[in-house]
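Researcher: I'd like a structural prediction for the single chain below. Treat it as a standalone chain; there are no partners to consider.
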Amino acid sequence: MIVASNGGCKAGTRRIAISCENMIVREPIAAGRFYDAQPERCRNELRQLLGTSITDLVPSGRKVVAGLVPHAGWTCSGAVAALVYQTLAASSTPATIVVFGGVHRHRGRQAAMFAEGQWETPLGPVEIDARLAERVMGHTNLVVSDPYAHEGEHSIEVQVPFLRYIFPEAKILPIMVPPGSTADEVGDTVGRTLTTYNYDAIIVGTTDLTHYGPNYGFTPQGIGADGNEWAKDVNDARFVELVCAMQADSVVSEALEHRNACSSGAVAATIAAAKKLGASEGVVLEQTSSSEVLSKKMGTPQSDSVGYVGIAFS
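Model: Treating it as a single chain, here is the predicted structure.
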């Protein structure tokens, strides 16, 4: 339902607002849960997360064209994401950032693009690169324009305040990519479009890794420290190895078989797009898990664990 609000038109309970100028605005759903909704506190949290030194793991002289980040609450995964964003920022100041996100709720078979308008953040709005959206959809029928597919999805939203803070002038193009056989083709098309039109752009993809423990219904190695360690050192490692080798055509089947990534479609698209932008390898900047992070912060063992990895592609 669309109702008038503050001189504009706003979707009642849906997190999409439409102004009287027909601008589509995606409103936050994760603010206040995954990250702070209050502008100054959000800004301070980003300052703290980004205060660590930039990694020197990427070989000197190699341009970082893409990054893979987690999408959990910043308390658990924000430091890993921040390291990737620092590394991207040290390599370029892009005009456009394509963000490939996971699909946790929407069940469409095609990749869903937010093709025009803005995304709101506590730090202010971020503009969508509508011209790039048109060009991508002109090159493939694997991507559809569906802003409402994004309204209940957090994986891309958790990244947008980072992008607004680090690259305040950049536009974004959010694309949710389901874990299907054409996920790498979506990324390949985006990468070809960027290179064909000579875009000054980078790619950000997002996934969390193994969701392990009784709350996730996945305990093949038992409950507790041993199981959580297996999830990171064995199960997550299988997936990370494929990602760093840039095996875009293998990561979806790997994740579906071993349950070691929740957004493998976004990962496949990220790898394929990064290849088109000239990347030949992925480098792990940081790998951890929620059980490791929370055990250190709270001083108590955790029965459940979610894996996180930050990877730079160059």
